[in-house]
Design goal:
Length: 141
């Protein structure tokens, strides 16, 4: 391993990105996973729950986090080793979700980075909180 590979990362380093989730996103996710839970698609069903209107699959919010990790921090070549997420508020179609990651540990020997993860909606409500452990590779052969 190149000694400088992880040296460009530091404690407290952050990145963020946002996305507005659409019905098309929800439909595509269901097609790919086979998960047609009425919580995503049936307004009458959801109206009887505390959520009152259909929610976006948790997988989509998680996908925003992995897009941020692989696109920005640490970037291409990162591999998710461990994740721990708590979903604190529902995400609905039309919500703008901003994901933020912050490096809380860099283990040069193992080539691991640990990041704190927080996602908030357009009302600044925390919708997801957690952390990830990532293997960072340089991609050289």
């Amino acid at each position: 391993m190149e000694p400088s590979l992880l040296e460009k990362y530091y404690l407290g380093q952050m990145a963020e990105m946002s996305r507005v989730f659409t019905w098309e996103d929800v439909e595509k996710c269901a097609e790919l996973t086979g998960d047609y839970n009425p919580m995503y698609f049936d307004p009458d069903f959801v109206a009887q729950t505390k959520f009152k209107r259909p929610v976006v699959q948790a997988l989509l919010t998680e996908g925003l986090v992995t897009a941020l990790i692989n696109g920005h921090l640490p970037g291409p070549g990162a591999l998710l080793l461990e994740k721990e997420f708590i979903f604190r508020h529902p995400v609905h179609v039309g919500d703008k979700i901003t994901a933020r990651v912050q490096i809380i540990d860099v283990d040069i020997e193992r080539q691991w980075i640990t990041e704190k993860v927080i996602c908030r909606n357009q009302h600044h409500q925390e919708v997801l909180r957690g952390q990830v452990v990532l293997l960072v590779q340089n991609g050289k052969r």
